[in-house]
Write a sequence for this structure.
């Protein structure tokens, strides 16, 4: 069975860069790798810019826009009794006019304006992970699936911001997601920094963004403690990689070695 690797850490620690570097390193070593970055519309378990519909709401939506039905179907993921429709890729809308507007109003996870109940959110996400697990069991060619923040970073952000969950609730939810795949197939690689404020300021400057406020810095410091609690509660191996001194190349080599060591890859 392929190994599922979650590259995790707070904002600005270099998760996306590490995923890309690890993908290249593993491929150069002869492994077959699939990697998914934040916002990737092909990501089977992490959803950004996706609209949530119940099955009945979805049917009604398709009837209202018959000319867009085929494109809607192409961008739909069935998750249990619900339907998730991806409506943007890397910030670019996949639909136009009122269709795009209505889909955005039904945003599933990222700062939704029409927040669905937490139970519905978790059920849809768990169904997506279970759906991925079905393909994972039959996967014979791929050695590694690499995910950019799909287990901790994005789901916990959603749960904290949208539903004000406590640490124990987040741990229980993440455990449910892992169980849908099977924890024996999973590994968490956590990028940790001793100086989160400096790391966050540097990352935002490199991205051309405004400097973080003290409130934002405090939030991410809290998030780091939150992550630590959740990881400790999960039945999933995790390793911390210290990038406090920005030695990403050394950590990349270390991570690749760990993942390909006998009994680990």
């Amino acid at each position: 069975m392929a190994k599922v690797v979650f590259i995790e850490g707070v904002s600005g620690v270099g998760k996306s860069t590490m995923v890309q570097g690890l993908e290249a390193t593993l491929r150069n070593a002869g492994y077959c790798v699939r990697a998914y970055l934040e916002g990737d519309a092909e990501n089977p378990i992490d959803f950004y810019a996706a609209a949530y519909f119940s099955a009945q709401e979805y049917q009604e939506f398709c009837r209202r826009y018959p000319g867009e039905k085929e494109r809607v179907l192409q961008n739909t993921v069935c998750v249990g009794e619900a339907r998730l429709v991806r409506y943007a890729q890397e910030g670019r809308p996949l639909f136009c006019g009122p269709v795009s507007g209505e889909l955005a109003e039904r945003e599933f996870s990222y700062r939704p304006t029409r927040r669905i109940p937490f139970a519905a959110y978790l059920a849809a996400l768990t169904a997506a992970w279970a759906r991925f697990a079905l393909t994972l069991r039959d996967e014979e060619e791929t050695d590694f699936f690499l995910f950019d923040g799909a287990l901790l970073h994005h789901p916990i952000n959603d749960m904290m911001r949208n539903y004000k969950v406590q640490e124990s609730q987040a741990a229980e939810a993440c455990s449910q997601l892992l169980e849908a795949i099977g924890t024996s197939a999973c590994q968490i690689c956590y990028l940790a920094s001793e100086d989160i404020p400096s790391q966050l300021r540097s990352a935002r400057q490199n991205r051309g963004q405004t400097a973080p406020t003290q409130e934002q810095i405090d939030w991410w410091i809290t998030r780091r403690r939150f992550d630590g609690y959740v990881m400790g509660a999960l039945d999933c191996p995790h390793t911390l990689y210290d990038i406090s001194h920005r030695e990403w190349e050394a950590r990349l080599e270390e991570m690749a070695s760990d993942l390909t060591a006998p009994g680990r890859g």
The two ends are 10 Å apart (CA to CA). Residues 118-137 form the longest helix (20 residues). The chain has a mean pLDDT of 93. Strands lie at 3-8, 33-36, 50-54, 76-79, 82-86, 88-89, 92-93, 144-148, 186-192, 238-242.
